[in-house]
Amino acid sequence: MALETKLFITIDTEEDGWGDYHRKDGSVENINQIPRLQALFDRFGAVPTYLLNWPVLMDDRACRIMKDIHESGRCEIGTHCHPWNTPPIEENISSVNSMMCNLPEALTKAKIANLAAATEERLQVKPQSFRTGRWGFGRYVAKALLDSGYAVDSSVCPGVDWRSDYGPDFLSAPDKPYRFDPARVLEPDVNGQLLEIPASTGFFQAAGTPLLQLRRLLARSYIKRLHLIGLLDRLKVMNFRWLSPELSSAADMITLSRSLIKRGCPTLNLSFHSTSLLPGMSPFVRSQNDLDAFLLRIEKVLEFANRNNIKFSSLSDYVREPLVN
Questions:
Q1: How far apart are CA 150 and CA 322, in angstroms?
Q2: What is the dihedral sign for C-alpha 73, 8, 283, 134?
Q3: What CA–CA distance (Å, rounded) separates 275 from 281?
Q4: Cα gap 127→314, rounded to integer Å
Q5: Strand, coil or helix: 43
Q6: How far is Cα 47 from Cα 73, in angstroms, rounded to an integer?
Q7: What sign does the CA torsion over 206, 221, 156, 12 have?
Q8: β-pairing, 201-203 with 240-242?
């Protein structure tokens, strides 16, 4: 691997209620499991970026846990916005409005400003990194980030179209970090004021663009019922994966990583939710055995990184890195 590859670990650090769009903050019992996760990172010298949302910031015990890790220099703290429980809550609570890209500009700005201010007040941290809840990124979100002093976003997931969930279409988004202007969030701009570090998603196969076009076609409602995407996956013709222990096996995450690096991507972004640390709180981890297997998948990726001289980085540390075209 000629280029020095960087591995980010980005964790949506949030309340326990998976898929519950309620105004109330909700419990954050899963945060009690963070020290076990952090101990795994410490073994490998990995520095994760915990992206905290409003209910976590409002919980005293959760803040103590996160502050202890941060003050010892073992993590970065950024923010993560669930609009349905981040004040001001002026919108109707609905699936449409759970995607932040659908909210008015002024409301979006107020929510992100409040989230940044709460992070400074509760943890004495001025957040630099951000991810939108449900990947609902858009130009109003980007402008609000700039106004609140953020430097880097990680809300784009290349190759994924969220329009059926009222969200953005990232199907053709860049898979490498890029600077951008808030008015055009998917267009690289060397003079852009914000940095995007996308989630790591993609195909095992090299022919990315034709496969993306085929994936878009096969995902259409009148074709989707034929289950052709699943068939092509089993035939190893079109294997699309996420670098996430919630959605992929360790072997698949390593195969995806090798594929991305081979195509010249200088970064890998391992992403998941803190809710998966507490069995029963997410659809990905239902039992203690599931949790043990989940953590083992993460461990295998960290081992792969160490064996291949892949360096760990927080999101904001990458802001100063030269970008690869």
A1: 19
A2: positive
A3: 6
A4: 12
A5: helix
A6: 8
A7: negative
A8: antiparallel
CA distance 212 to 91: 35
Task: Give 117-174 pLDDT, tens digit per residue.
Answer: 999 999 999 999 999 999 999 999 999 999 999 999 999 999 999 999 999 999 999 9
Q: Is 288 exposed, middle or buried, given 0-12, 13-18 or 19+ CB atoms closer than 10 A?
A: exposed
In angstroms, rounded to a whole number, what is the distance separating the alpha carbons of residues 21 and 92? 10
Strands (E), the chain: 6-13, 49-52, 76-81, 129-132, 152-153, 178-180, 194-196, 201-203, 240-242, 267-273, 311-312
Mean pLDDT calculated for residue range 102-118: 99
Q: Report how far residue 8's alpha carbon sits from residue 114's, in angstroms, rounded to the nearest whole number.
A: 26
**How many other C-beta atoms can be found within 10 angstroms of the C-beta atom of residue 104?**
11
Determine contact, residues 126/162, Cβ cutoff 8 Å.
no
pLDDT at 205 over 80: no
Residue with token string 């209910």: 55
Residue in this structure with the two tokens 């670990």, named with its chain if needed: 9
> Are the beta carbons of 148 and 112 closer than 8 angstroms?
yes
What tokens appear for 229 in the block?
A: 């995407």
| Residue 325, number of CB atoms within 10 A of its CB | 7
Domains of the chain and CATH, by start: 6-204+240-320 (3.20.20.370), 206-238 (no CATH)
pLDDT at 222: 47
